[in-house]
Amino acid sequence: MKKNESGLDRIVRVAIGVTLITLYASGATTGWLAYLLLLLGGFLTITGAVGFSPLYALIKHLAKK
Predict the structure, then answer these.
(1) Which residues are within 8 A (CB) of 58 and not within 5 positions of it... i.e. 6 or more apart?
(2) If both were cysteines, with which of 22, 37, 41, 48 could 13 make a disulfide (CB 3.0 to 4.6 Å apart)?
(3) Helical axes 31-50 vs 7-26, angle rounded to 10°
(4) Confidence grade of residue 1 (pLDDT, cut at 50, 70, 90)
C-alpha cells in the first residue's frame, strides 16, 4: 500500500480517532452511537497510523474515469 495521506492529515486522524475511542471507553456515549463512534475512531486511528486511506484511494480511482 502506497501512503496517500499527508503528515498533517495523519496527525489529525489519529487525534480525532483517539478522542472518539476515549468517548466510548469513558461511557460518555451509550447505545448505538457509542458503537458508531468506536468504529469510526478505530478506522481513523488505523488509517492515520498506517498512512493509507481506502476512501482516498477510491476517490482518486473514480476521478480518473
Answers:
(1) none
(2) 48
(3) 150
(4) confident
DSSP string, 7-57: HHHHHHHHHHHHHHHHHHHHTSS-HHHHHHHHHHHHHHHHHHHHT--HHHH
Using CA atoms, how far residue 56 sits from 6, 10, 25, 35, 47, in Å, is: 12, 13, 28, 24, 11
Residue ranges covered by each domain of the chain: 7-64
Question: Which one has a higher pLDDT value, 11 or 57?
Answer: 11
Residue closest to 45 by CA, chosen among 25, 22, 16, 5: 16
Is residue 33's pLDDT more than 90?
Answer: yes
pTM exceeds cut of 0.90: no
C-alpha–C-alpha distance, residues 51 and 11, integer Å = 10
